[in-house]
Every structure is written in structure tokens, then in C-alpha cells.
Amino acid sequence: MFTKFDAVNQYLQQRTLFAPLIFKKPSLNLGMIVVIPAYDEPFLLLSLMNLSRCTLPLCDVEVIVVINNSEQSSQAIKDRNQETYLQALQWVKKNNKHRIKFHILYVPDLPSKSAGVGLARKIGMDEACWRFMKIRNKKGVIVCFDADSRCESNYLLALEEHFKSYPRTPACNIYFEHPLHGVEHEDEVYEAIVPYELHLRYYIQAQRLAGFPHAYHTVGSSMAVRVMAYQQQGGMNKRKAGEDFYFLHKFISLGQFSECLSTKVIPSPRPSHRVPFGTGRAVNEIVAASGTYETYHLSSFFDLKQLFDEVPALYKAEPDQYEGIVAQLPASIQEFLSQQDYVAKWQEIRAHTASRKAFVSRFYKWFNAFMLMKYVHFARDHYYSNVPVGEAAASLLSHLHACSFDNTQLSVLLNHYRALDQEPIAKNRLSGKRRVK
């Protein structure tokens, strides 16, 4: 009998790059697969050891590592990848267990045009789809991790419990904290990750202050998705950077997106020149700038809040009233909207919605996270210049708590923002209710 699951699996026939790469039969109890891309990762085994020590959930678990390189990678990188592959195979022989199994794939000489973290994640996540299809498990969970990350010992168990607690969620992000001290990196690296993580958390909290309903972290090592939702949304993209942002926002815009706050991923703070933006590149820049880092001015988000506050009222407004409504908004919003042909877009949204709720939902599919980022860049360039991250973060906290904060104590500010991000308000976000502490 032809089922919805069979229809979804047309994805595997049409959108994957490889036939199944793993031939060992999966356990009928397989419920979770962790996918790890690995490119020139000499300490991959440390991450595998970390996962092997996790408390196991009720379902069985697999870990798929995709060691990869471009056809244009240097011979030195190819040699190191080969060495890592052989080491990992030896480790797997000794450490595979009945209920958690590790698979090491080596996919060399990928096309230079698309080779990168996005493609490597796609190869591994598509392979996870093949594994779940073999046992016809349409409820399986695919988890993204990194070859230089660590996690808390309840990581696998917490993810299983999370998806059971939120049966309608298609995907989630996972709470993360970069290490702020250690012996793996120079002190300046640990010092540099503080302003960068502070920037990430400030940016999300500023969006939430503005009332943006799609304000979530999108960190590649800290996300998970149901196998059916993964295929329905076209799978992972092949971007060389920012693949996590583009991937997760496909699910965030669907609604019912959630946050797993009951465990913790510990991404690496290491510097890197591999990608044009992201953690590694930012750490390099901060080290070079002797610890200074700038972020978006809080005024941009106060301006956004005035727009978002008007969105429900737009449903009943007539098209000839749109310009009058926008004329009451801040100049940064007015000028930005004028560049987006907002009158025509709002008319289109209104014409295709039959309720206020539907109008608001469709509005935010238009004014999504990409549009919001486009706006803050526009506001930065034309209205509000970037400011030191400590200044911006302290200003937002002062607004939330009605008291002052020292903008020079970045680690103290970061701890405040970590606490904000750990608030157990996932249910409120899933139901569309929002609150600002």
C-alpha cells in the first residue's frame, strides 16, 4: 500500500547525491542518528568519546561521521583526513556497542564548487534518512553535531525526551555554551569567544524584545530535526557557510519550532579561516582587534518593535491606509519598507488571508529572519552605526531590568544572557505567546 511515508521518500530518489553508503542493517529500535561533518579534524576521536559516554535513551542510537575534503584540498589535508579515517575505524572496532553504533564515512574529492560543511552535513543527514527508511521509522530524529564539539552526558536522553514532549515540533535547537577557559587553546581565544557569544545572544534577545516571533539561535552543532520534516522541507542545503541559519529557518517559519534547554552542547571556540563568517572567523577578527567587537545598535530593534506592534492592526486596514500607518513609524522603518514595495506586498498578503491570525502568520513569512537581517544591516549603514557589544548588551539588560549594568564586564553580561536563553518558555513560544522578562 502506497503511504505518505513512501511519498516523502521520493526525496531519497530525487534529492540525494549518493545511494546508501552504510550497508550494515540498522537496529529496529533505531530512533536517533547523530551526524558529524569532519574536515581536517585531528581530534575527532575526542568528540566520539564524549558521545560514547552519554547516557543512552530508550531508543538505539547511531553516529555517522562524514570525513570529507574538496578535490582542490591540499595533499596535506587529504593525508590528515586519511589518517583520521583510519584512526576512527580502529576506535569504532573497539567502542561500538549494542545500542550505540558509530559509522565512519570517508568522502574525498568533492566538487570544489559545493564542497563544505553544508554538503558534508547533507551527505550525512541523507544517509540517516536511508537508515530510517530501511526500518520504516518515520519518527526518527536526525541530530547535528560537530567534530570539535562536546556535550553534557544527558545529551541523547534529553533529546529523546524533548521530541516526545513536543510531538508536533518538526525541529529544535539545543542550548549551547562555548567554553570560556581551558587548555586546548590560547587564552586570547577564550577571551575572544566571550564578546562573540555575547553578540549572538544579544541579537536574539533584541529580536525578542522587538516582538519578532522567529527569534531563535541557529548553530550548526546544536540542532535536531525529525526525518519526515527533513525530507518534506527539501533536506540540508550545500552552503559553505551559514547552512545552519538557512536550514533551521525553513522549520522555524512552519510554526511549532522548539528549544531543547535541558542539556548543553559545548561548541569549540577555535579560530578558523575556513568560512567567510561564523564563529571561527569572528574569533580571528576579535583576536586581531585585541578583544574588541561591535554589534547592532539597540535603536534598530526599538524601531522594529513599532512596526511589529502594528502588524495585527494591518489586517483591518485598507490599502489606501498603509502609507499613513507607515508614516507614523520611525524613519529607518519607513525608508526600508519603501525599498521593499510594501504596499503591494501587504495587499497581496491581505488578499490571501481570511483571518487576523493568518494575516500575521503570512506577514512574518514575508518579513522573516532574512528580511530582518537585511533591515538591521540597512539601519546600521544609514541610521545607527554599530556599537561595542558590551554597550549594546548592557543597554538591553538595563531596559529589561530597569537598572544599570557595567558594559565593560563582558563575561558578567554573558552570564546574564545565558540565563535569559535558558528560560523555560518553550511552551509559550510554541503556542505563540510571548513574554519579556
Tell me about this structure.
The protein has 437 residues and is of the alpha/beta class. It folds into 2 domains: 4-292, Spore Coat Polysaccharide Biosynthesis Protein SpsA, Chain A; 298-424, no CATH class. Helices cover 49% and strands 14% of the residues. It has helices at 4-8, 10-14, 44-52, 75-95, 117-134, 155-165, 187-210, 227-232, 243-252, 279-288, 298-314, 322-327, 331-339, 342-351, 356-366, 369-382, 389-401, 410-421, 426-430, and strands spanning 30-38, 60-70, 100-110, 141-144, 150-151, 171-176, 223-226, 258-266, 294-295, 387-388. The strands form 2 sheets. It has an 8-stranded mixed beta sheet with strand order 3-2-1-4-7-6-8-5. Helix 4 (75-95) links the parallel strand 2 (60-70) and strand 3. Helix 7 runs parallel beside helix 11. The longest helix has 24 residues, at 187-210. The termini are far apart. Residues 426-437 have low confidence and may be disordered.
Secondary-structure map:
Blueprint lengths: L3 H5 L1 H5 L15 E9 L5 H9 L7 E11 L4 H21 L4 E11 L6 H18 L6 E4 L5 E2 L3 H11 L5 E6 L10 H24 L12 E4 H6 L10 H10 L5 E9 L12 H10 L5 E2 L2 H17 L7 H6 L3 H9 L2 H10 L4 H11 L2 H14 L4 E2 H13 L8 H12 L4 H5 L7
Q: Describe the main β-sheet briefly.
A: 8 strands, mixed
Q: Which fold name is given in CATH as the topology of the largest domain?
A: Spore Coat Polysaccharide Biosynthesis Protein SpsA, Chain A
The level of helicity is: 40-55%
Terminal CA distance reads 52 Å
Number of helical elements? 19
Strand tally, please?
10
User: What is the C-level CATH assignment of the largest domain?
Assistant: Alpha Beta
Provide mean pLDDT, rounded. 93
Spatial extent as radius of gyration: 23 Å
* The CATH homologous superfamily of the largest domain: Spore Coat Polysaccharide Biosynthesis Protein SpsA, Chain A
Broad structural category? alpha/beta
Gross CATH architecture of the largest domain: Alpha-Beta Complex
Large-scale geometry: globular
Strand content: 5-15%
Strand order within the widest beta sheet = 3-2-1-4-7-6-8-5
> Which segments are poorly predicted (pLDDT under 50) over 5 or more consecutive residues?
426-437
